[in-house]
Known about the structure:
Elements: E1 3-7, H1 11-23, E2 27-30, H2 37-44, E3 48-52, E4 54-55, E5 58-59, H3 60-70, E6 75-79, H4 84-92, E7 97-100, H5 105-124, E8 127-128, E9 131-134, E10 139-141, E11 146-148, H6 151-162, H7 170-179, H8 186-202, E12 209-212, E13 216-219
Parallel strand pairs: 1-2, 1-3, 3-6, 6-7
Antiparallel strand pairs: 4-5, 8-9, 9-10, 10-11, 12-13
Amino acid sequence: MNKIYIAEDDRSIREELLQLLKNAGYAAEALTDFQDPAEKIISAAPDLILLDINLPEINGELILKEIRRKIDVPVIMVTSRNSATDEALSLSYGADDYITKPYDPTILLLRISAVLKRSSNKASNRTYNGLRINPAKGALISEKSEIILTKNEMIIFQLLLDRQGEIVTRDELMTALWDNNEFINDNALTVNISRLRVKLSDAGQENAIETRKKQGYILK
Length: 220
């Protein structure tokens, strides 16, 4: 079940969206505390974000820009403003689509479905140093071999890949696993990281994951 995260400050619209998405079969959560919104959205590890441009104290387009620096997740901008400038800015910052209020619920759901489908196709074509990544199969595929990852290992690897070259903390990895209903403790996380390292090495990627003591991990 795909999780959709709503960043909308109008309570009535937020509640309508939550109900609409849940009725359509999605898991849906919403931002209600607008302090450090980008970090809260990232920590939720959603599959898609509905992001209002007009949020308290910070422009939604700036939140989008911050999110894009850290994770690659599809974003649909939702706004009451209807101008080519707003659309161009949203898309230039990395939005996948743009819809204005008042929106037609059916059209919104179709847009969400289309963006998720494009995102899924994109994910299935991702590569890392020549390895093709197949999340659905849980595999890293090269010309000579196919390395199968567990669900936990794939979640960890994808988060590290989304943030390649940046430090990903243990807390962030634990949050991503819990948000996917993979309930593990700190020791189990260490074991999963170790096993992922071995599998990457088997695929020809030795020392791919670097440990930063008391900070986290970096995928090189």
